[in-house]
Specification:
about 10% strand, HAD family hydrolase, HAD_sf, phosphoglycolate phosphatase activity, HAD-SF_hydro_IA, 2 domains, alpha/beta
């Protein structure tokens, strides 16, 4: 029996929500900063910036304005280590359930470029994300609501008929500002720190979104 939709669209953050890429991202920062600046970082240094635009992350970590060379090094490290990319458990089944219920799906991410598509392909999830809004598509990325509103415009779905699933404060803030319901992925990078953003729903695994979205 086909399940009924409570919402017409689901917007997903990718890293920390769909893809379990915490160590993959951290090791890229660690390698890049050690190589170019002889700077050591630990996981606790990196977690607070995850979910922010890529360039802003490096500016925060280094206090430098010009960080393009660091971003390129980071990018190359990730390409060489993309074999470590994987989806969270039950992600494929969850996305299939949404698709079967004819729920529209889009990604709203701070990740950019071909590497994002590459990672989704490695995880065998690219077919679900035909619509991806990145910082390249907007003037103001998350936590500004522009990227969420852009995705809704493309999907032709009203804000009150959509939910945004994310693992960072920037995700929840962007979703709330755009007028969509928000689902905090407590299994992601930021965990219980998301409670401070007062999301509409909490889930401890990706499949937890199904009873929120379908009935």
């Amino acid at each position: 029996m086909k399940k009924k939709r409570k919402f017409d669209a689901v917007l997903f953050d990718i890293d920390g929500t769909i893809l379990d890429t915490g160590q993959y991202i951290f090791q890229a920062y660690k390698y890049t900063l050690a190589l170019h600046l002889k700077k050591e970082v630990n996981w606790e240094d990196v977690v607070p910036i995850l979910g922010l635009p890529f360039k802003e992350c490096y500016r925060i970590l280094t206090n430098l304005e010009e960080v393009d060379y660091l971003m390129e090094c980071h990018h190359q490290f990730q390409i060489q280590n993309s074999h470590s990319v994987k989806a969270y458990g039950n992600t494929l089944k969850t996305l299939q359930d949404l698709k079967e219920a004819e729920v529209k799906i889009a990604a709203v991410t701070s990740h950019t470029g071909e590497l994002l598509i590459r990672n989704l392909k490695i995880a065998e999830l690219e077919k679900f994300f035909k619509i991806i809004v990145t910082p390249f598509h907007v003037k103001k990325p998350k936590p500004d609501p522009e990227s969420v509103l852009k995705a809704l415009e493309i999907l032709k779905v009203k804000a009150d008929r959509a939910v945004f699933v994310g693992d960072s404060p920037a995700d929840i803030k962007a979703g709330k500002a755009a007028g969509v319901k928000t689902i905090a992925a407590l299994y992601g990078f930021h965990g219980k720190k998301l409670l401070d953003t007062k999301p509409d729903f909490l889930v401890r695994n990706i499949e937890g979104i199904i009873p929120i979205i379908l009935s």
